[in-house]
Design a protein that fits this description.
Elements lengths: L15 H17 L16 E6 L19 H4 L6 E3 L5 E3 L2 E6 L6 E6 L13 H12 L12 E8 L2 E6 L6 H4 L31 E3 L9 E6 L13 E6 L3 H9 L5 E3 L2 H9 L3 E14 L13 H10 L2 H8 L5 E3 L23 H10 L6 E8 L5 H12 L3 E8 L2 H10 L4 E6 L3 H9 L13 H12 L2 H18 L2 E13 L2 E2 L23 E2 L2
Parallel strand pairs: 1-10, 14-15, 14-16
Antiparallel strand pairs: 2-3, 4-5, 5-7, 6-7, 8-9, 9-10, 11-17, 12-16, 12-17, 13-17, 18-19
């Protein structure tokens, strides 16, 4: 039974967002493909040690400005509280900021009220000036998640408990970007800036735990012990947390089944076995995997400049058949839209916007002047696991006369470079973010998903409405955006995969569609903290 999950936000300038989206997707993909080797000792569920699995070590060290996003944020969120906290149900709750509000109607000036009495793990008090200083450092970090604050013009402590953030352009999702899921609000002690690399192998934050280097073996396991200075000790239910690096699927099943691991990132093909062993499986629909048709101006492939051709590609894909074939255990839904359930813009009717209609696809190709078909190249990533999908889509397209050659890339850095520079006309990639983040990351200029900087007046108008509104107005604008995006056919979505988490002897482990990448041990408000139990 299913239990009811990039990620990047920033200004249009530069292509820093390319790395952010690519590595965040990598973190999600690695988590989804993960397993784990067993620990040498049994994991405790009596409030002692909690053992949590992730598929790889921190990609660029423990410094929160270098975090990769997705469920790899577990390395940061244990030691660093965020300004806001995104609960499993998508609710944005207080954390280091007790409240926030827009000071204008254009979503460009945000005021934060900073919690009093918070200390860093070294015992020094956190101040509003510390928060402002760290936000600027995070923005200028030029790392994976720094584009989440790329549009920040300034962050200023206006008094002892207030920070005002000014953006250079509207950003209604800024409060979400400051949460633990997107990293921009994870505040470290600014004293660490004297020797920035000091945070690569150690921690100095306001979170519930701090790294214990003496019990840590880099690349194998990372041990976090309780931070005695944490501001809400009642929300913490374990004396220590061990993040175990494990990448073998069979080993993680064995470890969870034997009680040697408490929580792990799951995958569809092992979920049934884990459930049979008595562990729980939490799941929720996550990101959409799609064929991104990047060359919408026809620079490399003239045919792709035609909306009729792009629509033909969408009609030619057998989404239902491909979804079943590549996800035999389930936990995936065919879809024609880039939206995610419970996110602004999602409409269930758009899941079937493009049916599998071979004759219609051929008619559209004929009308566009390509009755005999055409060929183009699409890049996939072996690391992100999108190459089997590429093969399946290629088979579908061949039935309408389209030859899709596959550029199979095995290095994530090379994949990002080709993607960001427009070296290929199409790629297989994933998307799943709140309304403005999704809109910006998909159609903004200077972003990964739009390397040719294609513009469209209808999409531009929709995007502006999403960026400058909130509440129901933004929901309505996002719905229009998603429908117009489907009609324009810049993308050919195929399926929406589920995120999964396994738990043994731990209660309150949950995933919901509004936040399918949730992987936080401690909820600073106490409601959703993981705790001993079945």
């Amino acid at each position: 039974m299913r239990v009811s999950d990039r990620k990047s936000l920033g200004s249009p300038k530069g292509r820093g967002i390319a790395a952010a989206a690519g590595v965040a997707a990598l973190a999600m993909a690695l988590g989804g493909c993960s397993g784990g080797s067993t620990s040498s000792t049994s994991a405790s569920t009596s409030g002692g040690t909690l053992t949590v699995q992730f598929s790889g070590p921190p990609i660029a060290g423990l410094d929160p400005t270098k975090a990769a996003g997705g469920q790899s944020m577990i390395y940061s969120t244990l030691a660093y509280d965020s300004l806001t906290f995104l609960e499993p149900d998508g609710t944005l709750a207080p954390d280091l900021a007790t409240s926030w509000k827009w000071l204008d109607s254009t979503n460009t000036t945000l005021q934060l009220t900073i919690r009093d009495g918070v200390k860093f793990s070294d015992g020094n008090a956190m101040t509003a000036d510390d928060v402002a200083q760290w936000l600027v450092h995070f923005r200028d970090g030029k790392s994976t998640l720094s584009p989440n604050l790329a549009g920040m013009a300034s962050a200023t402590a206006t008094d002892a408990h207030t920070v005002v953030i000014k953006m250079s352009s509207p950003n209604p999702d800024l409060p979400i970007a400051l949460s633990q899921e997107y990293g921009a609000g994870l505040v470290a002690n600014p004293t660490a800036l004297i020797t920035p690399k000091s945070l690569d192998l150690a921690t100095n934050g306001t979170g519930p735990y701090k790294l214990d280097p003496s019990q840590t073996v880099s690349g194998d396991h990372y041990t976090y012990v309780k931070n005695p200075n944490y501001w809400n000790q009642s929300a913490v239910h374990y004396s220590s947390v061990v993040v175990k690096v494990a990448s073998d699927a069979n080993s993680v099943v064995s470890a969870i089944s034997a009680g040697q691991m408490n929580v792990a990132v799951g995958r569809p093909d092992t979920a049934k076995t884990v459930q049979g062993a008595g562990a729980t499986v939490a799941s929720a629909p996550g990101s959409v995997t799609a064929l991104y048709l990047l060359d919408r101006n026809g620079k490399l492939v003239p045919a792709l400049a035609s909306q009729q051709v792009r629509q033909a590609i969408n009609y030619a894909i057998d989404r239902t058949g491909i979804t079943k074939a590549l996800n035999p255990a389930g936990y995936a839904d065919p879809t024609s839209q880039m939206g995610i359930p419970l996110q602004n813009g999602f409409q269930s009717s758009l899941d079937s916007y493009y049916g599998y209609e071979v004759s219609k696809a051929k008619d559209l190709l004929s009308q566009a002047g390509y009755a005999n078909g055409f060929s183009f190249t699409a890049m996939c990533s072996t690391i992100l696991g999108t190459c089997p999908l590429a093969q399946a889509v290629a088979s579908s397209l061949a039935k309408v006369g389209i030859t899709m050659k596959i550029d199979q890339e095995s290095e994530i850095s090379s994949f990002n470079q080709k993607y960001a520079t427009g070296a290929v006309p199409a790629v297989f990639f994933t998307s799943g973010s709140p309304a403005y983040m999704a809109a910006h990351s998909l159609v903004g200029t200077g972003v990964l998903a739009n390397p040719f900087n294609t513009t469209d007046p209808t999409i531009a108008a929709d995007y502006k409405k999403v960026a400058t509104t909130t509440g129901q107005q933004q929901a309505d604008a996002a719905a229009t955006f998603q429908k117009d995006l489907a009609n324009l056919a810049w993308f050919a979505p195929v399926y929406r995969r589920y995120s999964l988490i396994y738990a043994d002897g731990v209660s309150n482990v949950k995933l919901q569609p509004a936040n399918p990448s949730y992987y936080s041990v401690v909820d600073p408000n106490g409601t959703n903290s993981w705790k001993p139990g079945s």
